[in-house]
Design a protein that fits this description.
Helix content of chain B: 55-70%
Order of helices and strands of chain A: HHHH
Number of strands of chain A: 0
Number of domains of chain A: 1
Number of domains of chain B: 2
Largest interface: B-C, 51 and 60 residues
Largest sheet of chain A: none
Strand order of the largest sheet of chain B: 1-2-3
Number of helices of chain A: 4
Oligomer: heterotrimer
Distance between the termini of chain A: 60 Å
Mean pLDDT of chain A: 84
Distance between the termini of chain B: 71 Å
Radius of gyration of chain A: 18 Å
Low-confidence stretches of chain A: none
Number of strands of chain B: 3
Radius of gyration of chain B: 40 Å
Low-confidence stretches of chain B: none
Strand content of chain A: under 5%
Structural class of chain A: mainly alpha
CATH architecture of the largest domain in chain B: 2-Layer Sandwich
Shape of chain A: flat
Chain lengths: ~100, ~160, ~350
């Protein structure tokens, strides 16, 4: 299992190298279209959390700790929603503004 | 218009970013569902935020200016046609008088003034030439009867 | 007496030819010079000449369209071979195929969208020069109310349509193409939905502007034409109430001015119609040929498989169709406007 974790980590670091090009491309798109950088960052954090948690859950399942995998799933969901709170808050503010204007 | 273009670009790029990131999100169904919710909220915020800031009275289109220009062109052209008509009426009236004078054996110069009414009519005439009182009386009567120009508006030089 | 009247009529024609205001249509823009006939007295002959000239110059555009389609066919052949060798549907292959298709199509599509943009500009500029001439001629013919209303309406709608097409629709076509490629590459439903929304938006924007314009022109033409006709009749009655000789002089003068203005208006209008078609026909055929070629190619490529790529190809053809629709809408608007001016006052 330790070997699996090590290999996963090495492959992950290699993948990060390639993903950094995609991230810079997304950054370029974000600047061209005047999107809110904070919200795009939230999306990217969500993707990062999901990838890391995915690997962690699979390692737990592979080593026979299914319950650990499940609780990791719950933790991931909670962390993701916490990270996305600014986005939900912004949406609520917008809804309030629209309703007030009407 | 630039604001509309920027708005459409922002929606399109937001959709492309969400689509690209969806392919990278892990295989866990729960994570995929959460990402769909988050990308949906992100798209909603991107679409609604600029709409809240729109001020419709800032969208100006010069309707009044075009209307004024249209009236100006039409009235100028109409005035031009009335001027032409007055010229034609003046020339034809002059020719009519000259024709009658020629038949009487007279050599005269005629100038006709046309009124500025909606329907322009010849209202005065100036005649120069060597005319005997007798011929003057005949010609004056002719002008009054056929052209409606009274003696008060006939000027003999 | 008859000799006198005949002499006066002959005299008046001589006077008219030397003193009448000239209402001539502006020269055709540079883009339409190639297709413009020398003689525009006959509308049908002029139109046939324009069509004939346009068809004569079509060969290079057909060749370019064919080159693009051959590239696309080769790409589909390559994708189907790779798919067959792999033995399974590969997302990466289809992603790459969609992107390559996009690269092949983006350059010609960009050229055609720029051509559509330029054509819209040329037609708008020509319309802005022609409409005042037609308006002045119609006003000289006695249609003051209708000329002002038609001038205002036609100018506003042409400006709005030109602004909407150049500032919103043309950029939207680029976005549409981009979304089609991404939709084909990634298969994301959100992208496909936004792409379909853009197509719907462009189609309905053009339709609504044309419907509103046609409605305005029809209603305005009837109401103002009736007003002007009543005014003309009232003027004629006033003339007939004057002294008979003066009445006939005024009536002749009025008819001469109206007829000459009407003749010049019709001549300018016919030239204007032919000029607008001359500007429109070249780009229309260029984009039209590419549109038909892409449709045919999509039909052939279906046999190779690759449903996503065929959808991208169909979307590229639709984008061409939308560009065609845009220039067609502008041309139609100008033609309807000119015809309304030619129709003039209803007596």
């Amino acid at each position: 299992m330790l070997l699996a974790v090590l290999v996963c980590a090495l492959i992950g670091i290699t993948a990060l190298n390639y993903l950094s090009h995609i991230l810079s491309f997304l950054k370029k798109i974000e600047m061209t279209s005047n999107l809110n950088g904070g919200f795009v960052a939230i999306l990217l954090k969500t993707v990062g959390i999901s990838i890391v948690s995915d690997i962690a859950i699979m390692i737990c399942n592979d080593s026979g700790n299914t319950a650990l995998g499940k609780i990791l799933n719950v933790l991931t969901t909670a962390v993701t929603l916490w990270v996305c709170m600014p986005l939900f808050t912004e949406l609520l503010d917008l809804m309030e503004n629209i309703l007030q204007a009407l | 218009m630039n604001a509309i273009k920027a708005y459409l670009m922002s929606i399109t790029t937001a959709a492309i970013i969400c689509a690209v990131l969806k392919t990278v999100v892990g295989s866990q169904k729960s994570m995929q569902k959460i990402f769909y919710i988050i990308s949906g909220v992100f798209m909603t915020v991107t679409m609604l935020k600029p709409l809240v800031d729109i001020r419709i009275d800032e969208i100006i289109f010069d309707l009044e200016g075009v209307s004024k220009e249209a009236s100006f062109v039409a009235s100028e052209a109409y005035d031009q046609s009335v001027t032409e008509m007055k010229m034609i009426i003046g020339e034809q009236t002059k020719a009519y008088i000259l024709e009658e004078a020629k038949s009487m054996g007279l050599k005269i110069e005629v100038m006709v003034q046309v009124s500025n009414e909606n329907v322009p009519i010849p209202y005065s005439v100036s005649i120069r030439g060597n005319i005997s009182p007798y011929n003057k009386k005949i010609l004056s009567s002719f002008i009054s009867t056929n052209l409606g120009i009274t003696e008060e508006h006939q000027f003999w030089g | 007496m008859k000799k006198i009247i005949l002499f006066l009529i002959l005299l008046s024609t001589i006077i008219i030819s030397s003193s009448a205001t000239e209402y001539t249509a502006p020269d055709v823009p540079e883009s339409g010079e190639l297709y413009m006939p020398e003689d525009t007295q006959s509308f049908s002959e002029g139109l046939l000449f324009v069509l004939g000239s346009a068809l004569k110059h079509i060969a290079p555009d057909a060749a370019d369209a064919l080159k693009v389609c051959v590239k696309i066919l080769l790409l589909f052949l390559l994708v189907s071979i790779v798919d067959t060798v792999q033995g399974q549907h590969s997302m990466v292959v289809h992603l790459a195929a969609s992107v390559m298709l996009g690269i092949i199509m983006l350059q010609p599509a960009s050229t055609f969208f720029q051509l559509a943009f330029q054509t819209i500009n040329d037609m708008t500029q020509y319309g802005k020069l022609l409409i005042p001439v037609m308006s002045a001629a119609l006003a000289a013919q006695g249609g003051i109310t209708s000329s002002a209303a038609l001038y205002a309406g036609t100018t506003i709608f042409i400006s709005v349509l030109s602004l909407v097409i150049s500032s919103i629709i043309i950029p939207l076509l680029y976005i549409y193409l981009c979304l089609s490629i991404c939709c084909g590459a990634l298969g994301d439903k959100t992208l496909c939905t936004i792409r379909d929304f853009i197509k719907w938006l462009v189609t309905w924007t053009l339709k609504i502007i044309l419907y509103v314009f046609t409605g305005y022109i029809s209603i305005t033409g009837v109401i103002t034409g009736t007003t002007d006709a009543s005014a003309l009749k009232a003027a004629k009655l006033a003339i007939s109430g004057t002294v008979p000789v003066v009445g006939s002089i005024i009536s002749d003068a009025s008819d001469t001015v109206l007829i000459s203005a009407g003749f010049m208006k019709n001549t300018a209008g016919i030239y204007g119609i032919i000029a607008v078609i001359a500007v429109f026909i070249g780009p229309f055929l260029k984009i039209g040929i590419q549109y038909i070629a892409l449709k045919l190619t999509a039909g052939i490529c279906v046999t190779y498989g690759g449903r996503e790529e065929v959808n991208v190809l169909n979307d590229c053809a639709k984008a061409m169709g939308l560009a065609l629709g845009s220039i067609g809408a502008m041309c139609l608007m100008l033609l309807v406007g000119i015809v309304c001016f030619i129709k003039g006052v209803s007596l």
